[in-house]
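ugh ok fine here u go
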Amino acid sequence: MSNVKAVFLNSPHVYDVTNIGESNPAAAYQVDMTPQKAFQEAVDMAVSESNNRLDIFVANARIPWTKGPILDAGEEGFDHYRKIIATNLDGV
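structure:
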C-alpha cells in the first residue's frame, strides 16, 4: 500500500488522483504555490496525514498565458508574465 498526495493550483481533473483504489489512500490539496510557506505547509500536512510516510507526492500547479500576443500585452501583460513564472517555474 502506498500513500499518494497531489498538490495543485487549478485543475478540473485533480480529484481523479483520489480514485486510484481502496488499497492506496490518496488525497488532493488546492494550494497557491507562489508563497513558499504555503507549499511547505501543504507538504507538512500531507506527511502528517500519512502517518509520517509519504510515498508519492505530485506538485502540479500551473497558470496559462491569457493576455493575447505577448508583444501587445503591455504592463498588465508583464505582471501576468511574472505571475506565470513565479507559479510555473519557481512554485513547483
